Amino acid sequence: MSGFLRTLWSNLLAIPSNIRTGLRPLPTDPAKPSVRMRRAFFYHLHPMTVTRRALRPFVTMGLGLASITLFVLLCISGALLMVYYDPSATGAHASLMDIQYAVPLGAFLRSLHRWSAHAMVLVVVMHMFRVASQGAYSGRQLNWTIGLSMLVLTMGLAFTGYLLPWDQRSYWAVTVTASMLDHFPLIGESFKELFLGGSSVGGATLLRFYALHVAWLPVAVLVLMALHLWRLRKDGGLAIGSHVSADVEKVPAWPHLVLREASYVLVLLAVMFVISSIFSASLGGAPDIHHPSNPEKAPWYFLWLQEMVSYSVPVGGVLYPVALVLLLIGIPLLDREKSGVGMWFGPPKAKLVIMSSILLATGAFILFEFLYMSRSSGLYVAEIGTDILNPATGMLVLSVLVFFTSGILAASTRTACLSALFVLVIGLVGFMLVGVCRGPDWIFYWPWQEWPHGF
Questions:
Q1: What is the spatial distance between Cα 169 and Cα 157, in angstroms, rounded to a whole number?
Q2: For residue 378, how many other CB atoms are within 10 A of its CB?
Q3: Is residue 148 predicted with pLDDT exceeding 90?
Q4: Which of 154, 219, 256, 315 is 20 to 30 Å from 430 by CA-CA measure?
Q5: Which H or E element spans position 49?
Q6: What is the pLDDT of residue 138?
Q7: Peptide bond preceding 218: is omega within 30 degrees of 0, i.e. cis?
Q8: What is the mean predicted confidence (pLDDT) over 403-409?
Q9: What DSSP line would sit under 249-262, residue for residue?
Q10: R_g over Cα of the chain
């Protein structure tokens, strides 16, 4: 009996060390990283070794890791907000008011969720362009497609979450965004009715968006994220490229990469906490369905689409977005080159062509907007011609011209695709900035100009 008690006592005292042993891979001898990497789940996501180049901060900028970190942060903060949120048309705004002003740390938690959502949209888009700019999709077409799917789901999460505050701004922002589906032929009207639960935004819309936001879309992101990481691991981690010597120095992923990633995550979390502490997420009054906002604006990540639709429904609402999607899907299919993978914009000649395309697109966008806004003074032809002669059409045509010109000059399909892509992206960023400057009745106002009295 005494032997049993001694054993029990010694086992109780050893519980902390046993827990550490269970959580920490063994052996701790750094000379045996293979055992460490196999035994721990987070370590197993990494290759056994990484190149010194992969450890440089500006090779990948940690955008993939930032996306995962922000997604986890959103899941945690969102789960806490769900404790107080009432997903009904009569109680949604009141529950948000309670969270903002009555619940301890509620305002901070809501701000953390809001700014993390905006940051995730921005980071995921930047991650996609980083991969495209370095040609890192080469030989990884499946993972590129999975990444594009996650980008779409991220936009869906941001869009569905935008309605949940159920205030005047979110109500009319979602209303105007949903109305743009009317301009998509064949499927637009059906999709709108499916997502809204009717012909307009209402209680059924809020419930559907809530279900999508907290259940269906996050689960879909988790599944695709697991596939994305699995394919990345199977493909050998970071795309090295032919410009990197085969005998380049490699180091174990533990501790060199793992500890850097841990530090990166801690810094990112600290930044988000500081931002959320300083800048509170705004919350307007309850929605007034009889008095729309003026101007009615879509969320910033869809504002470029609203601006283009204001020029031309067929071009801005259909042709431009479809061209962008087809180009993104088709890049790894058109680009079969092996050289320059992993290099920003490829070889020096390709860099020069792409940079020239970006400068050309920027200048052309400014010119197109100037001509369009000056059409009343005769710089444009007849008013009826603005449905065709508008900045969206101009940037779309320019992307086609740049595609062939860049491809011929650089003798590279990758350069052609990237040049055309950046022309379209310059257009999207420009249209979004112009949309930000729109005031009442969708009139353009410079940031330093005051709106008419009463707005």
A1: 18
A2: 7
A3: yes
A4: 154
A5: strand 49-51
A6: 80
A7: no
A8: 91
A9: -EEEHHHHHHHHHH
A10: 26
pLDDT for the residue 1:
53
Q: Are 424 and 324 in contact (CB under 8 A)?
A: yes
Dist CA 82 CA 54 (whole Å)? 39
Q: Match 């809530």 to its residue by tokens.
A: 210
Contact predicate 299/287, CB 8 Å: no
Task: Report the alpha-carbon distance of residue 304 to residue 177 in Å, rounded.
Answer: 11
Residue type present at position 124: V
Q: What is the pLDDT of residues 88-121, one digit of tens each?
A: 988 999 999 999 999 999 999 999 999 999 999 9
Q: How many Cβ atoms sit within 10 Å of the Cβ of residue 424?
A: 21
Residue 6: what residue type?
R
Q: Where are the beta strands (DSSP E) in 311-447?
A: none
Task: Give the whole-angstrom CA distance, residue 21 versus residue 180.
Answer: 57
Angle at Cα 145 formed by Cα 144 and Cα 151, nearest 5°? 90
Burial call 152-189: b when 16+ CB within 10 Å, e when fewer: ebbbbbbbbbbbbbbbbbbbbbbbbbbbbbebbeeebe
Biggest CA–CA distance in the chain, Å, is 103
Q: Is the pLDDT of residue 27 over 80?
A: no
- Return d(Cα 431, Cα 451) in angstroms, integer: 20
Residue type, 198: G
Give percent above pLDDT 90 in the chain: 43
Q: How far apart are CA 154 and CA 117, in angstroms?
A: 9
- CA dist list (Å): 403 to 265, 331, 360, 408: 38, 12, 13, 9
Gap between the Cα atoms of 275 and 255, Å rounded: 30
CA 307 to CA 435: how far, in whole Å? 6
User: What three-state secondary structure class fits 245?
Assistant: coil
Instruction: Give the closest residue to 254 by CA, choosing from 13, 42, 4, 21.
Output: 42
| CB-based burial label for 53 (10 Å; 0-12, 13-18, 19+) | middle
Q: Is pLDDT of 384 > 80? A: no
Beta bridge partner(s), residue 179: none
pTM, whole model, 2 decimals?
Answer: 0.86
Please give the torsion angle defined by the CA atoms of residues 243, 244, 247 and 251, in that order, rounded to the nearest 10 degrees. -170
Q: Which residues contact 252 (CB under 8 A, 6 or more apart)?
A: 30, 33, 37, 48, 49, 50
The pLDDT score that the predictor gives to residue 320 is 93
Q: Would you state the structure tokens that stand for residue 359, as one six-digit string?
A: 């400068």
Residues 6 or more apart from 143 whose CB is under 8 A from it? 137, 228, 231, 232, 235
- Round to whole Å and give the CA distance between 252 and 274: 34
**Integer Cα distance of 272 and 322 in angstroms:** 34
CA distance 249 to 200: 60
Average pLDDT, rounded, for the chain? 84
* The pLDDT value given to residue 238: 66
